[in-house]
Amino acid sequence: MSDKERAAIVTGAAGGIGRALVKGLLGAGIRVAAVDVVNYDDCARKCAQIQAECGPIDILVNNAGITRDMTFKKMTKAAWDEVMRTNLDSCFNMTKQVMDGMVERGWGRVINVSSVNGQKGAFGQTNYSAAKAGIHGFTKALALEVARKNVTVNTISPGYIGTKMVTAIPKEILDSKILPQIPVGRLGKPEEVAGLIIYLCSEEAAFVTGANISINGGQHMY
Ligand code: CAA
Questions:
Q1: Helix 126-146, helix 90-105: angle, nearest 10
Q2: Are 125 and 67 in contact (CB under 8 A)?
Q3: Ligand 1 pocket: which of 136, 173, 175 to mutate (most atoms <8 Å of CB)?
Q4: Which of 28, 44, 57, 198 is a plausible cystine mate for 98, CB 3.0–4.6 Å?
Q5: Which residues are catalytic?
Q6: The model's pTM
Q7: Which letter, b or e, does each residue of 175-210 get, where b requires 16 or more Cβ atoms within 10 Å of its Cβ?
Q8: Which residues surround ligand 1 with Cβ inside 6 Å?
Q9: What dihedral do alpha carbons 169, 66, 102, 133 form, nearest 10°?
Q10: What residue ranges in 174-219 does DSSP mark as E strands?
Q11: How many angstroms does the Cα of residue 129 sit away from the middle of ligand 1?
Q12: CA distance 14 to 18
């Protein structure tokens, strides 16, 4: 089967990376549906409807993510729960709907969008860093379970990308604390992240699984 016949679901499609990704996937001839992710039953209903109307889903990009930044001293239970639900529970909620089909058909791609801040931690982000780090544990365990069925599961960890999520950071913090940590000297572009995800969706990426690929302008290397 060629890339042209594939169908994908992208979560968080309204965000900066999500929009660039949908455009890139469509450009690669892949059909795309967008889904919201917080409630398990809603995910099940929506994915069943998409698969009934559009056929099997070959590619899932778990891209939905929010921030509720505050220092741990000020961190509320609501801010913790919201970030866990949207950023981490969503990966379970969505992957559960499509994985059995990928395994049965013997082809699938799951790409989980984490963050540099899941790798290195970030001031004001105990909730976000925990959820984003959890994503890669999920990736590695699931990658092991489905590798022999030609289903790959990977994490990508973008750094600071020029989206609303990042431009919402107070300017003085962005300029004084964050930009100086990026050796490339600028924010990343959503299209650069989309390009990496589209590669991971391709036939050529069949040997990449359980990986966590950084795309962060050199901000964090390990
Ligand atoms: N590193 C070190 N120190 C920092 C810091 C940082 N990244 N951010 C803030 N501080 C310091 C401040 O300079 C300040 O120091 P002083 O008291 O000495 O002046 C102190 O922490 C308190 O900072 P604020 O006055 O800003 O405190 P606040 O309670 O009003 O806000 C905050 C705290 C919400 C964490 C705010 O500082 C903030 O928004 N920081 C940015 C957090 C961040 O980087 N979020 C990433 C969002 S983008 C993203 O998450 C995408 C991705 O995946 C990469």
A1: 10
A2: yes
A3: 173
A4: 57
A5: 128
A6: 0.95
A7: eeebeeebeeeebbebeebbebbbebbeeebeebbb
A8: 67, 69-71, 115-117, 122-125, 128, 159-160, 165-166, 169-170, 173, 177-178
A9: 70
A10: 212-215
A11: 14
A12: 6
CA of 143 to the centre of ligand 1 (A): 34
Q: Nearest CA to 135 among 213, 200, 68?
A: 213
CB 13 within 8 A of CB 186: no
User: Residue range 126-140: average pLDDT?
Assistant: 98
Gap between the Cα atoms of 150 and 5, Å rounded: 17
Q: What single-letter amino acid sits at 135?
A: I
- 188: which DSSP letter? B
Residue found under tokens 């741990």:
72
* Predicted local distance difference test score (pLDDT) of residue 222: 83
Residue 1 has what pLDDT?
Answer: 45
Q: Are 75 and 127 in contact (CB under 8 A)?
A: yes
The 8-class DSSP code of residue 146 comes to H
